[in-house]
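User: I would dearly like some help making sense of a protein record. I have put the entry right below:
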Amino acid sequence: MHMLMMTMLGLAVLAAFWFIGRLLNRRAGRMVVNGPRLFLPVWAAVSFYNGYVGVTKAGYSVQAELLVHLVVFGLPAAVAVWLMLKKPI
């Protein structure tokens, strides 16, 4: 359940970065900020910290947390890369 919540949180944070980036770019009339590109290092830090807490506090093995990390970081990151490669409207 925690993995699903973290993945959904990642997608929600990505949506916020994307939306705010689009608003700033429209207001400036040019590409000022790339929201998904800014999202990636922020989400990497959050998901790595989540894995650290899972190993040190919750008692999960590193191998188990790496599998969880693959989904928690990987799915939102894949969507962010797709948004970066997509042509702007």
